[in-house]
TrEMBL record:
Name recorded for this polypeptide: DUF4097 domain-containing protein
InterPro entries per UniProt: Toastrack_DUF4097 (IPR025164)
Native organism: Cohnella faecalis
Domain of life: Bacteria
Residue ranges of every copy of the DUF4097 domain listed in the record: 46-271
Record-linked Pfam families: DUF4097
PANTHER family xrefs: PROTEIN FAM185A, PTHR34094
Length: 286
């Protein structure tokens, strides 16, 4: 058995050395810095997609000079920078691709990306608005500030997701593992899926549908729209406004359940299912 462990270890080392030799990966050099901006008329950009291997800080600001723009500032490998520099707005869509080129399958051998983050600013006039925003990071984090679009689609394989003052008709979040936090999330529908991690969302409006495999959920609603949460393992806490007059449908296969009496005056519902863990629902001010 020991022999096979040694052989396996040697194979991994050989693969790593081959990857460095063929890919030209450098582990001790700072990545070059770059900047890029796209300017457009109000009707010229409706769909913005961002892909990255690094931390992405995205914020929306009101234009102060009457122009609309998307600006990127950060660090990346030369091939990635060239991809960004070559990107153009086409058919009302823009793809900002910040992923490493070529794709690195052994990132644990590459430390040049540690601490790297991309700053993206979307500056819009009053008559400009995005129909769709899509952000995907492989291993990194996403931070969104003052973002507004009809549909927002966020996904991450591993990393943290932070939302501050986000407005959308539809918000979709898909995270394999990480921490999801937010304050001021205004939607008509919010769909969230996480394999493992912590969810803490405050000042949320809109229908909520969550599926969490393992982890804890804290959700603070500001309206009475429906909330449905399924958690395989972990605790679930939901706070609804004092005006909530619907009913609670709560069940834990193993664990405790705490909630006020259902008023059943409206059809609004808070439905929570947990295989194991604590379920607690409270009304604000009580």
């Amino acid at each position: 058995m020991k022999k096979w462990w040694i052989i396996g270890g040697l194979l991994l080392i050989a693969i790593g050395i081959a990857g460095i030799a063929t890919g030209g990966w450098k582990t001790n050099e700072k990545l070059p810095e770059f900047e890029k901006s796209w300017r457009f008329q109000a009707s010229e950009l409706k769909n913005l997609e961002i892909k990255s291997d690094y931390k992405v800080n995205l914020k929306f600001v009101k234009s102060t000079d009457g122009t609309n723009s998307v600006s990127v500032k950060g660090q990346a490998p030369e091939k990635t920078i060239q991809t960004v520099q070559d990107a153009v707005i086409d058919n009302k869509s823009l793809l900002v691709d910040l992923r490493q080129k070529p794709v690195k399958y052994f990132n644990f051998l590459d430390f040049s990306f540690v601490g790297v983050k991309e700053e993206i600013t979307v500056s819009l006039t009053d008559d400009a608005a995005l129909d769709a925003l899509k952000v995907n990071v492989d291993s990194g984090s996403i931070a969104l500030t003052d973002v507004s679009a009809k549909t927002v689609d966020l996904s991450a394989d591993s990393g943290n997701l932070t939302l501050n003052n986000l407005t959308a008709d539809s918000l979709s979040i898909d995270v394999d593992s990480g921490k999801i936090t937010g304050d001021g999330v205004r939607t008509k529908t919010l769909t969230l899926s996480a394999d493992s991690g912590l969810v803490n969302l405050k000042r949320v409006t809109g229908k909520v549908d969550m599926i969490i495999d393992s982890g804890s959920v804290k959700l603070y609603k500001e309206d009475t729209s429906d909330t449905v949460i399924k958690a395989d393992s972990g605790s679930v806490y939901v706070q609804v406004p004092a005006s909530f007059a619907g009913y609670y449908d709560l069940k834990a296969d193993s664990g405790s359940v705490h909630a006020p009496e259902s008023k059943r005056e409206t059809k609004d519902i808070v439905k929570v299912r947990a295989d194991s863990g604590l379920i607690r629902v409270e009304q604000a001010g009580q």
